[in-house]
Amino acid sequence: MNAQLHLPGITVRAVNYDHCETIGERFHAFHGANPHVLDALVSLCLDVKRRGRKRWSTKGAFEVLRWSSLRTTGDDFKLNNNFTSLYARLIPMVEPELAGFFATRGDTLHVDFVAAIARGPR
């Protein structure tokens, strides 16, 4: 299938990280201000998977969003690469069809944290 991916413009809101000491706290602040980024990543990854891809990376998904549809407010760094591993764990929790789509390392540092976000409102 050669149909082009269509991603609507996504506006990423600036986040004040002054109160955030850890990557988990930064991610939580970012996701709270930008839950639509998760929705866009899930939509993109489902589309890629349904086109026949067995595995992919959240880093690849970030790059597609950056290139094709990202608008921003605030600072220059819109999608922090430090969040890719957290999104790789969160995406399959909110969309079971994407379970096993991303390779993740055995790092369990943020698993409980990401699971709590997955259970919360998006």
| Largest beta-sheet characterization | 2 strands, parallel
How many domains is the backbone divided into? 1
From the spread of the alpha carbons, the general shape counts as globular
Q: Proportion of β residues?
A: under 5%
Rg calculated over all Cα atoms: 14 Å
Q: Give the overall average pLDDT.
A: 81
Reading the helices and strands in chain order gives EHHHEHH
Distance between the termini: 31 Å
The total count of helices amounts to: 5
Query: Main sheet: which strands, in order across?
Result: 1-2
SS-derived structural category: mainly alpha
Number of strands: 2
Helix fraction?
40-55%
The low-pLDDT segments are none
Which tags fit this structure?
122 residues, mainly alpha, two-stranded parallel ribbon
Summarize the structure.
This protein is mainly α and 122 residues long.
Can you characterise this structure?
This protein has helices spanning 23-33, 35-50, 58-68, 84-94, 111-119; strands at 10-12, 70-72. By secondary structure, the protein is mainly alpha-helical. It is globular.
